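Subject: Large ribosomal subunit protein bL33 structure
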Amino acid sequence: MAKRGSETRPIVKLRSSAGTGTTYVTRKNRRNDPDRMVLRKYDPRVRRHVDFKEER
């Protein structure tokens, strides 16, 4: 049986706000989070936690 939730849970890239070019890939629920996501995650290039913002 095929997955059918791709339009409600798209794959998004999260890019580091530190300017290092580090990215994370995740899925989001478009009904709960219609705006762009901002998550605080670890950036190994600067060795600290920074904001990662969704890019489209």
